[in-house]
Every structure is written in structure tokens, then in C-alpha cells.
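[audit] Reproducing an earlier prediction to check determinism. Same input, same settings, fresh worker. If the C-alpha cells differ from the archived copy the diff job will pick it up downstream; this log only records the rerun itself.
[audit] input (326 residues):
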Amino acid sequence: MFKALVLEQEDKKTLATIRQVATSELPEGDVLIDVDYSSLNYKDGLAITGKGRIVRQFPMVPGVDLTGTVAESSDDRYQIGDKVVLTGWGVGEGHWGGMAEKARLKADWLVPLPTNLDGKQAMMVGTAGLTAMLCVQAIVDANVKPEDGEILVTGASGGVGSVAVTLLAQLGYKVAAVTGRAETNGPLLKQLGATTIIDRSVFEEPARPLDKQLWAGAIDTVGSKVLAKVLSQINYNGAVAICGLAGGFDLPTTVMPFILRNVRLQGIDSVMCPFEKRQQAWQRLTELLPASYFEQACREVTLEQVAECAEAITHGQITGRVVIKL
């Protein structure tokens, strides 16, 4: 038996309880893992509180991220004692996830834990960091260089945004960070490498088809009218990488930025990201993230504290990463 946070549905309401679970209850998979750490993402918050239609079947153990040690394996790629990390693949939505002391998963979903990261550090990176790295790589691949101008990051105080700010700064870009709590989050974002702090309210005004060109590129985690405003301000030949919809999944914009300023809009998905690209991103993260990143922007909690944190993250009250020690 082992401890797990289990979601069940009763009268169309999601109930989250911590209980003992038998290993035999775990879903099928090639590899059994003793989980060391998981993390709390925005999607996890929606699943645990029932505020979003995230969970596809009940009962469900949430947690789209985990890291741990292989306890059993029927796949030659992983041996007992190997350290592994998992992000995405519908885990925590359609397959029991990381908020438990054990997990059984498909070997194809796993990545060996980089040798210069420990489990807690990997979860401080997690899905958010992997997504941020893929976004930053999209800006680099679009040939947007540091000398071209500032890169805008929306939702900068969140998990993806805070890592993106750090990575961009490490690559020599000047970063303009957009946050809904500029007074409280500004100092932290400047520590991470932001050169300019902008209050989110500036980007919630209706967007013109084209506005003054201000940004060489952008990473957007918000969507909707914020993204529309961002697109209207991107420089000629700029690029925008998008990975979130915290502000909504609509996009009230026009074709003007794309056909008159040659702006590129690149969608980023980390959930089904292929193994090779995923492994390269993890390696790049270990090369770029400074030691100082792991000394800030993180809160470690127990499984018993997750429900409270889940409520907070859905209200935008969490800064940086929440790591769950199993």
C-alpha cells in the first residue's frame, strides 16, 4: 500500500482525498516508479478543484509531472535504480499521475533524469520549464537575435513565464515581463533577469489591428485579448511562441501583423513532444539555468497541502513553482 491523492466525482463535483492505495490498483505500464517529487501546474489546479474539464475518467491521481526511481521494469531501456522524469502524455488526466508515492507508466513517456539535476530540481523545472525551453527555442529558431530588441513574456510570474524570463536572460536577450502583480512580483522577475516590468492591465485594453512596433519577439502564456495586443506590437519579422490560454482560448485579432509585418506565430506543445526533442530540451535546460534559479521562485509542500495550493493557483495567487515531496 502507498499514499496517494485521489480525485473522485460525486454529484458532478470533484472530491480530492488522500488515501492508501494498493499497487494492484495502478494502471498498466512498463515501468513501476517510486515517486520522489511531483509538482503543481495550473492544469493540476483545474483538475483538483474541478474548475476545468481536465480529468477524463475517475478515480484519478492527478499530477502531470513526476520524478523518481525505477522499482520494476519490463522495458530494456530502464533498469531498477534508474532515475527518470516524466512530463505530459496525458498523465494525471487519463492515466494516474505523480501525486502518489508510486506510479506505473509507459517507458515511451519517460526521459532519463539528467545527471546534473536532482529530483527536486527537475520538478522545479517540470512541464513548465520544458514548455518554456521549447518556447525560447522557437524564438531562437525564428532567427530573432538579442540585438533585435526586447522579448516580451506574458504571465511572467507563473511557472512557464518565470523560467522563460530566466532562459532568455541567460541567452543575452533583454526581457520585458508582464505580470498582474507588478509591485510584488517585479523584484523577483528582475532577479530572474527581466529588464522591464509591465502591469498586465496595459495588455487587457482592446487591440488595434496594428500598433507601434515594440518587441522583437514574445512568449505568451495567456492568449485571448492579451495575445491580440502582443501581436499588434511585434516588430517586422518578429516571432511569437504561444503555449497557454489562462486568459481564454479565443484570439480577437486580424491578419494584419502576419501579412504586413511578416510576424510568425508558433504554437508550442510539450505534452506529446517526441522523445529526442524532449531530451534535447532537458539537456539545454541543465546548461542554461543558473544555480541561482534553484534558490528562488519555488515552494515545497506535502501531499496534505496540495488542495489548498490548487485553489490558490487557479486564482493566480502562486508565484513560481510548487514542488510536492512524496
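[audit] rerun output stored. Observation attached for the diff report: Residues 119-141 form the longest helix (23 residues).
[audit] end
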